[in-house]
Design a protein that fits this description.
single chain; about 450 residues; Aspartate Aminotransferase, domain 1; Aspartate Aminotransferase, domain 2; 5-stranded mixed β-sheet
């Protein structure tokens, strides 16, 4: 008697597509993705990797777990608050709520009272001005680099940007401020040396070809020793006398001084020191979405807003909504992590350590994202075997620890306390996976 080829028992495509759970999935997945999932499980069965009777359950599991995005949520256990590889700032509940509200039709550029067109992002602008009264006006663009490009284009295209050699920094992914500014058609006029720049260096550079003077905070590094730089308040007197705009690029995004970071510049202080325009980021220490913030004198902000390039770098409605909610809402996760209580961090870490039988070690967190370089944030971490890091990254949920000196360190500073049990479960799963892998190699 001929034996039936098991491949003939594999459910037909149309039958699988007609399953209620598969039909319901079309509200969140398109037809191409669903058919790909069907084809994948059928191919597994054809290769003998899956019994024909398990095709339907396997498909239902695949459909249930398939997301429309490839991005995976990650629990940040590195102790680095503004982690660029993890998308920098996690949004506050208020910002997430605002994002959802802005996902549909919203009055981003409409006056509902009379039906006329209004200024784009008026809510975010109002929130920024309320939080930073020293600014006469504000403009939001899509990121900090765009803010710098817009400022130098509008103020100095075809003219000179005077900047200290010690402030010509390279930012993430190999991008250099010099390249960004020169791409606008501005000419860089470098003054001073790498470690020392004086007021007379700037004074000697100013002339009829000067478009603006740029003061850049070297966010991601520090130069110590025989150094000299001109404070904003001194530089502003010189530029005001010459009628030259002074642009201060702070990078990090603090709107006001934070005593936890005494050397980190903030927008309010820079404006009080005489800067005409201050550039900051929305997704670093401000704790909001990616955005470039320009605050300062109304005359100059208006000039920037009316430049044709402003249309190309404007922020979208989602960023504007999240930014407004970040500024007007409660403390975002970045601020909470920065101000986390050291004693509470230790108690949380020790609870996990006791459950796991693992040691606790002192561990300094960091601001990250180019903010407050070299400033330690005292805390604690679980000390685990280095080989556990790979399993933690690949687990569900994905956990990113810090690998240092042959150890895997799990720091809870950036982990919300309600997620401590998820960290515990993830470590247990990773330990079991590592033990199984080691046993397999030994066998």
């Amino acid at each position: 008697m001929d034996q039936v080829d098991p491949r003939r028992l594999i459910p037909r495509t149309n039958d699988l597509l007609a399953l209620p759970a598969v039909r319901d999935a079309r509200t969140r997945l398109n037809e191409r993705v669903i058919r790909e999932l069907v084809r994948n499980v059928q191919d597994q069965a054809r290769r003998g990797e899956l019994p024909p009777g398990q095709v339907e359950p396997a498909l239902l599991a695949a459909v249930a777990s398939r997301s429309a995005t490839s991005l995976r949520p990650v629990l940040n256990a590195t102790g680095v608050i503004v982690h660029t590889n993890l998308g920098r700032a996690p949004l506050s509940p208020a910002a997430v709520e605002a994002l959802v509200a802005a996902s549909g039709y919203v009055d981003v550029e409409l006056d509902l009272a009379d039906g006329s067109r209004s200024r784009r992002g008026a809510g975010a602008r109002a929130a920024l001005l309320a939080a930073c009264p020293a600014a006469e006006d504000a403009l939001v663009v899509n990121n900090g680099a765009a803010a710098l490009v817009l400022a130098t284009t509008a103020l100095a295209a075809g003219r000179e940007v005077v900047v200290s050699r010690g402030e010509l920094v390279e930012i993430g992914a190999g991008f250099r401020l010099t390249d960004l500014m020169e791409s606008t058609g501005a000419k860089l006029h470098e003054v001073g040396t790498t470690n020392r720049t004086h007021l007379h260096d700037y004074a000697g550079a100013l002339g009829p070809d000067t478009g603006c003077v740029l003061k850049v905070h070297p966010s991601n590094f520090r130069v110590d020793g025989f150094t000299s730089a001109v404070p904003l308040h001194e530089l502003s007197r010189l530029t005001a006398d010459q009628g030259v705009p002074l642009v201060a690029d702070l990078g990090s995004g603090l709107l006001a001084h934070d005593p936890h970071l005494p050397d980190e510049p903030d927008v309010a202080s820079a404006l009080a020191s005489g800067a005409d325009v201050v550039i900051a980021s929305g997704d670093k220490l401000l704790g909001g979405p990616q955005a470039g913030l320009l605050l300062g004198r109304k005359e100059i902000i208006t000039r920037l807003a009316r430049h044709p390039l402003a249309r190309a770098v404007r922020a979208d409605k989602l960023a504007l909504a999240a930014l407004e909610a970040t500024v007007a809402g409660g403390p975002p996760p970045v601020v909470q992590s920065l101000h986390a209580d050291e004693g509470q961090l230790r108690r949380r870490t020790e609870r996990l350590a006791q459950a796991l039988g693992a040691p606790v070690v002192a561990h300094d967190g960091r601001v990250g994202g180019g903010g407050a370089p070299g400033v330690p944030l005292p805390g604690w971490a679980l000390l685990l075997p280095e080989g556990l890091a790979r399993q933690l990254r690949a687990g569900d949920p994905a956990v990113l620890p810090r690998v240092h000196d042959g150890s895997c360190l799990v720091d809870l500073r950036c982990v919300p306390e309600p997620d401590d049990h998820r960290i515990l479960d993830a470590v247990r799963q990773a330990l079991a996976s590592l033990q199984a892998a080691n046993a397999g190699r030994a066998g």
